# Entry
Amino acid sequence: FIVGRNGSGKSAILVAITVALGGRANFSNRAHSVSELIRRGSNSSLIEVQLSNSGVDSYCPEKYGDSIIIERKLSIDGSSGYRIRDPKNKRIISQSRLELQKIIDHFNIQIDNPCTILMQDTARKYLNSKTPKHQYKFFIKATQLDQMLENYSKIENFLHLTDL
# Structure
């Protein structure tokens, strides 16, 4: 949990974690691009998140060890890059977005799921929504039924192609 008084930076921390783990800047409703998340007067910003990687469900423990450090550097020109390191000797293991996605998938971190990361604006919209259609869309996304339907559709298309 992140707690604090109004204006203390709780939402900024949540946005930083989300962006570091591969989320888009516009997910937060605070910025349209990563360059808007950089402090005024600075040319870049560095976000670092450390994930625990111990136990039977660890991800490639021989490569990463007991924790994984994910860094995302944001540049004022709108570009950004990832570095995935092990914390022991600080060596860079990967700079691949695909490797980050594998880590996120392995730990089942659902960046775009509103039940995983609920931004203030999203909560406000949902709570103030009077339409069942909007609440249904939120439910479908939160339960990942939209992803399941997309996966089934891809499988069905693949099956049709193999039958030819």
Observations:
- The beta strands are 44-52, 67-75, 80-85, 92-94.
